[in-house]
Amino acid sequence: MQKRVMEEDFRKGEGRPQLLDLIPNERDWMVKDVGVGGKCFGVSEEKKLELRLGLPGDEDWSSVKEKREEHSIESALSLGHYSKVSKTIGTNPSSVGAKRGFLDTVESKTEVFQQQQQQQPGFLQLQAKGKELSQKTNGRAEQQSLEKKACGSPAAHGSAAAPCGDGAGANNSSQTRTAPTPVVGWPPIRSFRRNLASISKPSLESQNGGPETAVKFKNGRKGLFVKINMDGIPIGRKVDLKAYDSYEKLSLVVDELFQGLLAAQRDPLTAGTQKNPEEKQAITGLLDGSGEYTLVYEDDEGDRMLVGDVPWDMFVSTAKRLRVLKSSELSASSLGAVSRKRTAT
Amino acid sequence: MTYFPEEVVEHIFDFLATHRDRNTVSTVCKTWYRVERLSRRSVFVGNCYAVHPERVVARFPGLRSLTVKGKPHFADFNLIPHDWGGFSLPWIETAARGCPGLEELRLKRMVVSDESLELLARSFPNFKVLVLISCEGFSTDGLAAIATYCRVLRELDLQENEVEDRGPQWLSCFPDSCTSLVSLNFACLKGEVNAGSLERLVARCPNLRTLRLSRAVSIDTLSKILARAPHLVDLGTGSFTIDHRAEAYHKVMNNFIKCKSLRSLSGFWDAAPRCLPAVYPICGNLTGLNLSYAPAIQCADLIKLIHRCSKLQRLWILDCIGDKGLAVVANTCKELQELRVFPSDFYGGGIAAVTEEGLVAVSSGCPKLSSLLYFCNQMTNAALITVAKNCPHFTRFRLCILDPKKPDPVTNQPLDEGFGAIVQSCKDLRRLSLSGLLTDRVFLYIGMYAERLEMLSIAFAGDSDKGMVYVLNGCKNLRKLEIRDSPFGDAALLEDVGKYETMRSLWMSSCDVTLGGCKTLAAKMPGLNVEVINERDESDEMEESPSDLGRVEKMYVYRTVAGPRNDAPDFVWTL
């Protein structure tokens, strides 16, 4: 029913591009590309390997193709394509003229395309690639050969006719991948998926010991902020434990956070004016008891623990607050609590 | 039929499954129209501006289920300005007045406010199902209203919405008497979740079959929930990370083992590879698996998991699975029907994660494949031709080559032949998205062969107006056409203006259509709304009256019986 309607459309619309007419005859295509003879190479191979576009009901492509090479353009068209409307075409000479006209316009409009055609590798190369692919897929593609499906692609056939193309040259600029400039709304991904990738990449790097993770978490990623206080310093701070992946980094951060404040506590007169970094003392040895200060934390059961004893991940998931204690103040009792805790786990 | 009592006619209509069939019978005669409208329980409105809500409600007073869609598809990719429209309030208000028996509401790409959610919750005593997909404009307060007032709520399904977080209390608003939940999906929420409330809610809803948790739900909570609800069929995990406590890990695995009915898994936010084995015991039963939110899981671990999923029908995955991983999918998942491969690195220059080889492998190993969404760095004609031969049953084929206008890297040709093979082979193709370097030729093939095509998405393709004309002439069943950055202009637009009344909508952005062309279309077709969307920076010189020759940046055309809409913002002109 639909095809009939289309036929009528074809008959009606003189000015309309008639679909049929727009299918370039294979032979013409070859002539255009090669500029010689028009005989295609490796016909029998094409038959087996190639998938071409043709009529759904058109079973015996090979015989049709041979006929086409012998007959004129008109009859070839009628045989090769819509057999149902063949008589329409056969009896309508103007369509042929229109077709030629179209080919002319195609040629003028698709000059770039043609240039590409000439640059393409030989047909055999294309088919060889197709062969490789099909072999990879257990040769299924090869077995489902054309005789069954009878589909065709004129351009692939056309490419058969241009083996003179510089095959090696096929791998030119298309292979080198330059980063595409960002286009609005491209690629077509929802925003929450974009954020997913940018959130997770930093943490991936940190897992692999990559560069220091910048604290750049987008919406949806919550940080884990815990309070940290230092003995003798009235001002507390907050650290985002999720921003770090190791005790060393945490220790450095603590040093950064409190160095200035500590210096100001010690010598309020000079802190503001003295910008000399050597004047400030780094806070070191937080983790091993060797420094003036030691880092401890309060876990989810309220116990005070030494920072550094448990795996980092477990620390992050159980730490509720941090304290920087004077090492001398670490009482025997609290340490005892720690060792009890350790044996318990 | 005049001898049949109307009850019999109505009973016969009950057997009509689709909206289209019911719409068709209603046009036969006045009696059938009346019988049909009074017995109609479910209405689908594909474009909220195609018809006034009052008209729908007046015609179908017995309405129980309403589905409405708002913004065009390209809104998903930020191509439609935020306040373009698609407001749900008029629909809810009108339904509240006209069909208080409403039980189900499904909205997609609409603006939903807390106010409208509250109105919804209070207006329909029998309300059972709320599905919001890609909507925005509401917060957890609106959800609290739904939880509080919908006494017989069965389904609350929030898919990929933008929801403002105002705290975790909403979940606690489900009264103790609420035991009717069958499906609860709040995976898209970003805020904290009250674990205790959640566990209690799950415990008192024995019919719960679908539960999709948000990222804030820890694996410990998940473990407890699984213990309480081993009858779950569809589970979305929360954040799937475990610390080193082996005890917690074994607990969650044991709870998974008890879930004999589990068929679909998703979520896996923040999932670390070491946690995946917890789900191994149930992999053999899975028909659906979505790992596309877990970029930390790389190919090797994905392969170990997929090896166990022999019954998989639906797989959503990131491209870090690689061609190698897709080969495993091809060997293992013989029942696969739907595959979606999402990109994990789309700013270019990265390692090619999946190529045409992966797709060819899957097409070869999975003959039932019918729905595809595939993001890749390159594609060849030969591969597409092979895929077309292997899988003639595609109904949805969406290919996105990340680099626009990229040709076949082997032959340097456009991908016309490849896509041509797809449309020629897949006779049932209903949806197609194109990418890569494409000339007018591919549209010729589409027009010739894609008879069942209903939705076509075009980007950076074609050479001339002819391309668009081939499609409009050829695709008899085309309903939605969306085009961006392609050289189609007024000639194509105006070639067959009657065509647009047979379609739901046409979107064109960054094409060659001019204001004059749009005006002509609007003048010729009063049954269409021709919207021109002009976003301007303040820095642009303000034109008093833009020239008709000026190109239109964004145009949205849709058939309507409602006339020009009255809620359009300043930057949207309905011509």
From TrEMBL, chain A:
It comes from the Eukaryota. Residues 223-327 form the PB1 domain. Residues 128-187 are annotated as: Disordered. Transmembrane segments: none annotated. Residues 151-164 have a biased composition (Low complexity). Residues 135-144, 170-179 have a biased composition (Polar residues). One of its GO terms (biological process) is auxin-activated signaling pathway. One of its GO terms (cellular component) is nucleus. It is found in: Nucleus. Keywords: Auxin signaling pathway, Nucleus, Repressor, Transcription, Transcription regulation. Pfam families: AUX_IAA. Belongs to the Aux/IAA family. Aux/IAA proteins are short-lived transcriptional factors that function as repressors of early auxin response genes at low auxin concentrations. PANTHER family: AUXIN-RESPONSIVE PROTEIN IAA17, AUXIN-RESPONSIVE PROTEIN IAA26. Homodimers and heterodimers. This is Auxin-responsive protein. It comes from Elaeis guineensis var. tenera (Oil palm). The gene is LOC105040525.
UniProtKB/TrEMBL annotation, chain B:
It is found in: Nucleus. Pfam families: F-box_5, LRR_6, Transp_inhibit. GO terms for molecular function: auxin binding. InterPro entries: COI1_F-box, F-box_dom, Leu-rich_rpt, Leu-rich_rpt_Cys-con_subtyp, LRR_dom_sf, Transp_inhibit. Pathway: Protein modification; protein ubiquitination. The keyword rRNA processing does not apply. Keywords: Auxin signaling pathway, Nucleus, Ubl conjugation pathway. Coiled coil: none annotated. One of its GO terms (biological process) is pollen maturation. It comes from the Eukaryota. One of its GO terms (cellular component) is nucleus. Residues 4-45 form the F-box domain. PANTHER family: F-BOX/TPR REPEAT PROTEIN POF3, PROTEIN AUXIN SIGNALING F-BOX 3. Part of a SCF (SKP1-cullin-F-box) protein ligase complex. May interact with auxin and auxin-responsive proteins. This is Transport inhibitor response 1-like protein Os04g0395600.
